[in-house]
Amino acid sequence: MGSKKHERLAYRLSDIIIRLNNGERLNIDTLTQDYQVCTRTLKRDFQERLAMLDFSDSGPVFYQLSPNRVGYLNLTEIKRFANFASVQDLLPKIDRQFFMTS
Fold it and tell me: What residues form DSSP beta bridges with 100?
């Protein structure tokens, strides 16, 4: 996988996590348009790369974090996920300033 593909993957996963953490209910059909990827790619993201998250809706069309997990992801959890997904070197430096400007 080339550098650009890794960057797109890191952006897509981080954006999905932020949106889920903000309480959004994500529609996989809308996400395919937002990220210019096929449904199969997004299903793999949710079923493999984001499988450790606690979903109240878990497909096949809608994904949403359980209400008790919304806002739960903190800096430690995000770093843990980045390491787990092997994208830690592709994400920008994550610190308090990053969260304030995002």
Answer: none
